[in-house]
Amino acid sequence: MKKTTIAAAKKAAKKAVKKAAVKKVAAKKAPAKKVAKKAPVKKVAAKKAPAKKAVAKKAAPKKAVAKKAAPKKAAAKKTAKKATPKTTIAASVDVGFGNTLYLRGAAPGLSWSEGVPMDCKADSSWSIDIAGVTTAFEFKVLINDEYWSAGYNEVAEPGKKTSVTPVF
């Protein structure tokens, strides 16, 4: 025999042995559970049982009690207070960035010793609403509650808008 055929035969024999030794065994799996398909449930409204009739006992007839009619009270007349309209004071002056206009005067919520800040509506438009004014009053406009406007005191009428252009 030739060497190559002997060597080839040995190789073939080794491969056959290796293949037999390497054979893999599949792991056993638990058998799959078979679930039967459920039939769809038909929805049916529950039937109400007939209500039992209560046996009514006959009561002795009651004597009718005469009720006295309650005297009607005269409708209380409520005198609605007329809402006093707000008095508005508007000032048109440019006081510069960071400054605020204040108002002092002799009206409800105002005093001559301490000012109330006005609301800035635009660059040079300021206003304030004062409630509860029943009579005419005098007022003065100040910058930062420190610098008084020049001239006489201004006068505002109750429930009206008063526009001023103060000069400092």
Automatic annotation (TrEMBL):
Domain of life, per UniProt, equals Bacteria
Regions of compositional bias (Basic residues) in chain numbering: 50-84
Which family, according to UniProt? Belongs to the histone H1/H5 family. HCT subfamily.
**GO annotation terms (biological process):** chromosome condensation
Quote the Pfam families the UniProt record gives: HC2
Function noted in UniProt: Might have a role in establishing the nucleoid structure of elementary bodies.
The entry's protein name is Histone H1-like repetitive region-containing protein
Chain positions covered by the region annotation Disordered: 50-86
Which is one GO molecular function term here?
Answer: structural constituent of chromatin
